[in-house]
Structures are given as structure tokens and as C-alpha cells.
Amino acid sequence: MGVPLDLLSMSQTIARPEDAMTSGQRLQQVVINVAKLVNMRTDTDLRQDVLDSDIINIDGTGILWAVRLLGHRVEERVAGVDLMEALIANCAQHGYKPYFLGASAEVLEQAMTKLRADHPTLRIAGYRNGYFGEAEEEQVVAEIRNSGAHCLFVAISSPTKERFLRKHRDQLGVPFLMGV
Question: Cβ(57)–Cβ(78) under 8 Å?
Fold first, then answer.
């Protein structure tokens, strides 16, 4: 359906953000499932948001099956939540600082409490709820840019997260960007 996919394993995918966080060179990753693929057919902005990403991983099983039916060899799907969890563990191990954007303030506080309990060495660059208007975007971008984050996880619904990342990725100053 005209969407290039990176047929990477989980370990191959994890290596790319690690390289970006080490080098400081920006890398944007996105995952594709059937719902996003269908929405991309009618939402040209979402389609461009996805196509402008540096890595496009298979998240949904439906996409995995379709790729295999088309005769491509792919080891596994790279679910966004699994990738995020692996990268957070790597951040804790290597001293990289993640920034979290999204969810309600209450849910975000619960997530930060759990992350700190699960990863005591994790240094969180910052976090902010995902409920802000267009007028606040520049302030949010500045907060993230000034946080010293090595990676950014944006937990806002599609296509809002893809749109935010595409619009601001060069101003954020964060090496690895991912919508979750």
C-alpha cells in the first residue's frame, strides 16, 4: 500500500536509537498497525508524517502477516510498547535521560512512580501531560529542548503525536523521537 517498512528485529531496532542517543543525531521512529495504515489512505497529513520518519516498524500482527504473505522475510514485529520498555531499560543502564509527553497528569504521575520503582537508576529528563493547545506548543517544545533529554516518548493519540513530532522534531533537540 505504498508504505516502506523497515524489516528490523527488536535487537536491530534497539541499536538504532542507541546510536542516535550516543551520536546526538536525530532519529525518528514510528510503528505501523492496520488502523494507522487504513487511516493513512485518507489522511494525507498522517501519511506524510509516517513517511517522513526515519524508521517505520511493524507494530501490528495484521501488518506482519500481510508482509509475510507478500513473500518478505521478517523475523518479528516490533511492538511500540515493547520497544519503549526496552529503551527505558537501556536508558537506566547507560545514563540516557528520557522525556515523557502525554496522557493526563494523574496517569503520567502514576507512570513516573512505576518507572522509578522499576528502574531506580533511571534519570528522567522531564515529563508533561499531553493536554495542551496549539498556543502552548512552543512552550512545550522549549521545555523539552531545555531538558537535556536523549529520547522523547510521545503518548498522545494518532494522528496528533505524529503531527507534533513531524512539526517540531528539528526544534526539540532530542536525538531519538518516538510516538507511543
Answer: yes
Q: Are strands 151-155 and 98-102 parallel, antiparallel or unpaired?
A: parallel
Beta bridge pairs of residue 176: 27, 151
Dihedral over Cα of 130, 168, 63, 115: its sign: negative
Q: Which of 11, 27, 51 is nearest to 162 (CA)?
A: 51
Region label for 113, one of left (φ > 0), alpha (ψ between -120 and 50) or beta (otherwise): alpha
Helix and strand tally (H, E) in the chain?
A: 8, 6
- Cα separation, 169 vs 172, whole angstroms: 5
Contact 46, 159 (CB under 8 A): yes
Burial class (CB in 10 A: 0-12, 13-18, 19+), 20: buried
Say if residues 32 and 56 touch (Cβ distance below 8 Å). Answer: yes
What phi, psi does 78 have (nearest 5°)?
-115, 85
Using 70 as the pLDDT threshold, list the residues of the chain that sit under it.
none
Q: Tell me whether the omega of the peptide bond preceding residue 159 falls within 30 degrees of 0, making it cis.
A: yes
What's phi and psi for 103, nearest 5 deg?
65, 180
% residues pLDDT > 70 (the chain): 100
